[in-house]
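Predict the 3D structure for this chain.
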Amino acid sequence: MHTITAAAAAALLTLPFVPLPGAASASTAAVADPSMGPPMGWSTRSLGCSVSESSVRQAADALAPLVPLGYRYVVIDDCWLAPQRTDGVLAPDPARFPGGMKALADHLHGKGLKLGLSLSAGTRACAGGGPGSYGSEAADARQVKDWGVDYVKYDWCNVPTADFPGQNVQQIAQALYPPMRQNLGADVVFAMNNEDGSTVPWLWGKDAGATTWRTNVHNRPIPDSYPSMVDVWEFNQLRAGNAGPGSWADPDLLQAGRGGMTETEYRTQFTLWAVGAAPLILQADPAKAPPAIVANPKVIAVNQDRLGVHGTFVRTDGWYHALAKPLANGDRAIVLFNESDRAATIGTRLGDARYRIEDLWEGTVTSSTGELAAQVPAHAALLFRVSERREQAPPLVTFEVDPGALGDDRPSVLEPGRSGEIVTRVTNTGATGRLRDLRVTLAVPDGWQATARTPARTGRLDGGDTFTVTWAVTPPAGAERGDHELTATAAFDGGSQPGAAVVTVAQAPPAGRTYVSDVPWTRVKNHFGPVEKDTSNGERAAGDGRPITIEGVTYTKGLGAHAPADIEYFTAGRCSTVEFQAGIDDEVGAAGSAGFEVWADGGRVAYSGLLTGSMPARKVTASIEGARSIRLVATNGGDNATSDHVDFADATIICT
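Done. Predicted structure below.
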């Protein structure tokens, strides 16, 4: 048993505890009408120009059960317009919407839903043809209101900027958006949609009466991938100070149910959008949107809270984030978000009182005298509702499985057939009572072995103390290379706490000199297409490269990539040197530029300097003595990345 003091336990947390702003600090904020929370619903974007009246009605049927939770708007995103106006007014495409928009709006209203349509501030719609509303704002607003439309997404496409000599894009937008808002009236949701951010709507959208304004300037529209989602969210957080009740920052659609992210990552997006008071508009078919994520009423309540505050950072260091959102009844919503690829402990200080802490995803209720901390899985976001109460509840427990050091964003690595060390750590974080008869168990995949090297049971754990168990974990010799999950349980009288961690099984290179292309990597990132072994990068499907050639010299071995690229290898502290010929492949001619780097355990140990497509290969030699892992990195040369076909030619590694 390893028991430490409360002060030492606090020091183990990845993020130092810092005070959160209390609810009282928001007591003077304007209170919005409870019915005017961020819009919720579904968009036809995934359907593109295959959208039709029947597909919208089918999706509406699937969305109807979510109406009691607040999902009301069915937003038809482009491709609904006829190519030309009829008698000077907008008309729906007769093939796609033969029943007309008035009948569709009536149908949706009968189900408790509302109809949204996209219009363009320019001369033509963004997709599918059809007229824009430029110069016809009053007539188009009147037309859609006559149909019963409740929501207008106003796009920025085909704008005749030549009609505004001497004005920048922002000034033009400030001339074109307000007339449509004024003609629609306050009873219609007005979503300003400028996907590339050129009109900087966050600076003036609220004053123009916009219900929502897009903040996504990185990707347009948001892709269904974790890195892109995080990029979009980070841009959105920069606009938090411009948002408020009735005028919401819009980081774009929810992706849950589309299949490009994991369940954890989809839950993270929903959490971040909820605490950011963002619109909750689904992109997936409502029938495929997972209810466990999109239909959590307590998480939705945070998003729709009538105080209308956009959650902001309490602490962030680029990987680990704590955010807080004051709520109308004096509670606070707190998010602990781990952006990295490894489980990490994140925490913050609540204040000097006793607090009720409800995990809004798991439903558990605990108490704490002022600290909130948890081990957060990779790519996960935990959401808590915190209130200052003295009700009886078990103390908050922080259960860590294989905790890493600050900045260690990769899972621990175990070798097949070799025993490795894993630590579990239980902290009585809440300090409102004593844990009795604490038992820790660790479960491993079939065929693995796990043995406690230190006692796995203790009779008591006082407030602030920590109990650490060291485990010997051995994957079998034939263990599959890649990521594996370890699960654990900390059980005590009156309760238990689950825990988990991901570890990677990898094989270090053999003794002697080995071509790197003959060694499996543990992680890889590449700009276009996959990294190729012993050929150049072809940018698309695996195996589409050519022989590696730099300034007329052909190499039979090496790696072909497209900068920026990052290729990681497990070396187990048993390798000494990496060597390769760095250069831009001849297949792009004189174009392309990049820098080549070698990183060992988080530190750069070699750099080639800038190389271009008109330069011969340059030898790079790096000492990696004692490193557990290394990375071969190619950075963009500072210009367009289109032609950056980089070669790590004749790359070898020397190990013992």
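Residues 512-655 form a domain with the Jelly Rolls fold (CATH 2.60.120.1060).
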